[in-house]
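Notebook B, p. 112. Complex prediction, attempt 2.
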Amino acid sequence: MKPIQVGLLGIGTVGSGVFNVLARNQDEIRRRAGRGIQISMVADLDAARARSIVGENARVVGDAREVIANPDIDVVVELIGGYGIAKALVLEAIAAGKHVVTANKALLAVHGTEIFQAAAERGVIVAFEAAVAGGIPIIKALREGLTANQIQWVAGIINGTTNFILSEMRDKGLDFDVVLKEAQRLGYAEADPTFDIEGVDAAHKATIMSAIAFGIPVQFDKAYVEGITKLAAADIRYAEQLGYRIKLLGITKRTDKGVELRVHPSLVPAKRLIANVEGAMNAVLVQGDAVGATLYYGKGAGAEPTASAVIADLVDIARLGGADPTHRVPPLAFQSHTLGEAGRDLPVLPMAEVVTSYYLRIRVADEAGVLAKITGILADAGISIDAVLQREADEVGGEGSTQTDLIILTHDTREGDMDAALAQIQPLPTVLAPITRIRKEELN
Amino acid sequence: MKPIQVGLLGIGTVGSGVFNVLARNQDEIRRRAGRGIQISMVADLDAARARSIVGENARVVGDAREVIANPDIDVVVELIGGYGIAKALVLEAIAAGKHVVTANKALLAVHGTEIFQAAAERGVIVAFEAAVAGGIPIIKALREGLTANQIQWVAGIINGTTNFILSEMRDKGLDFDVVLKEAQRLGYAEADPTFDIEGVDAAHKATIMSAIAFGIPVQFDKAYVEGITKLAAADIRYAEQLGYRIKLLGITKRTDKGVELRVHPSLVPAKRLIANVEGAMNAVLVQGDAVGATLYYGKGAGAEPTASAVIADLVDIARLGGADPTHRVPPLAFQSHTLGEAGRDLPVLPMAEVVTSYYLRIRVADEAGVLAKITGILADAGISIDAVLQREADEVGGEGSTQTDLIILTHDTREGDMDAALAQIQPLPTVLAPITRIRKEELN
């Protein structure tokens, strides 16, 4: 059978990874796919660099639309990123009857509904394993491996940059700013790290997983997004003393009222496997009603791990793409005509409706009655306390200090109730600094 | 679309799990699969018990062949187990044009080639996600998620009974026999635990993974199989002191000379995620040349975790089974006509050709020159020593003891060379007991 003809849009880090892995493993991939997979066209603004990568093996053009217009191309791989030109090109490729493979989590989290709709109407596949957790086949696991389950929640370390930073902060006892600079120097963080450290990248991925897990449309605009920039070394240390690690988790959870969709730093029991995922690695923990907890771990970024996912999608297309469109796996796991139904049933909840437990660090004056006052306010708000850790003032502020840290762990609480309680506690004269509030996930 | 009609052969623990999960999650499964999945017939020798499970929802018969002969049945789910009648029924179901789902690892590890061949000729699917690691979608990950990779090795904790026993031995410092009895009392081990504790069950699963990972035929008869019955609490303790845990691993590895396929207790660095998989849980670590290491963790047994995998296969069949057979995923990942090719290229290696590192525990007389003699023999055999731990005689044998344990960790060694060296060391008059030899896997 003739090799499947692939056109790459963009040949940066991931694109050259795709090219190299396909070249290196072509025999084995052909034996799996049943036909060869050939990159025959590459579009990149930097045509000279593109040529230096692909040599004589593919035609290099400057205009992506030349690839899309070529009737010999079966699949367009979009590796440009972002919401702008990438969106237009993906929609044009679909309109031209091409299957599309993309690693573009931002695009799918924001415009996925429109894109999948267009693909369904045109009868083409849009595949995106590389969009979430790099080389870990988590999309396939959620969409195909766990189809028997009512999925209850998904919690993932799905941003390698922030996990590297948090691991370093813990290992070396350093503050965020210091470690960020080191991460940038080592190439684990970009020059403009905003999307990573503010949690936006993780929220894109969590949004995609929420749709697949629960059969709801992608709704990035409803996601709660909080990054790691305000974490202090002290919080990581206190968490450790209490038996927890702090991880940036992307969480999506089904409740009776709707779906939680949130990214924020989280205390996780140190004994959980996911708490021990270190450095730039990713891991996703999925709770299903039949299977229980399953975990998927691996590299979430990098040229070849991401290429591994892109090529797996190409093999899927080579194997299944020729079948009539009713005999394929739906992109978001659920048959597309049923997504609307569920969107009505399961709204994404506002953060005030989320129920979780909390770690609070409150810098207080070291005087009698402070603890009683604060715990009284929590009790009045119906917030139940799990543990309190009060540090010696000397230990916190140095000898003769009149300030101390009060660490409170709560039981499950509605976020809105916590907001209300903290609004009362923060202005107390004995509370000397902005309160640190970190959510705590037991993941059991 | 009409629901897909399923006939169950055998409704024991897993069968009733399949029935219950399908009933509980039927709406969600239908939304994913695009059509309902209905168990309309059940064959079981204990018809009364079968009726008590399925009620009026399915026809219960005593003869499995009635299910196979029924033209309304689309898929036969074989949950009988073993090589005997199960093999005949699976082949008859295939011959009758039914798709088959099975959890029967023994059957596939031994007779898989014949069964997949028959299925290919008849144009039906044989699916078996439940055969390896229960609810963890590891077959799908290897067969579809990692298709870009030249897979280098797979190492898995794929038998929950033995992992439970090893976890208990370590936690409580108890010997094998004591913990086995406890495991039997708790239901983690069967009354006849031979297949689990001798490594046979793990070897069935490793055999299936070797075929999928490397594109070779299933060759259970070539697997090296060693169980955990000879492990002593002392070895677990010494391993711990050296920074290792002991796990029963199913390993399959590609080398220049061929494929290693082996099950045995293994020292694993304690810091590896897989070393921290406790109790009856399963985990499989896969090393691919593009993706690096990925790990898959979850419950490897039990009614509903296994049902999760069986139903995922049914959903795959509902989604893809109607396509013409050229547009499906090949059962062993590689297109079947290419399996023979590879079988010639990559023989399964005899154990003497396996290269790994070792932990040796040698009970010796506590006298001068013993260590020199033993390390001299190892050096002459070209075996390089990584570390030596010599215990105080008093500590090992009680006060005044004249015996001690010599613990030696080696670098990578050919198993045949180690056999030859141990054949010289064992008869030494200063070696007072059978030498314990446990393989060590760094898994990096």
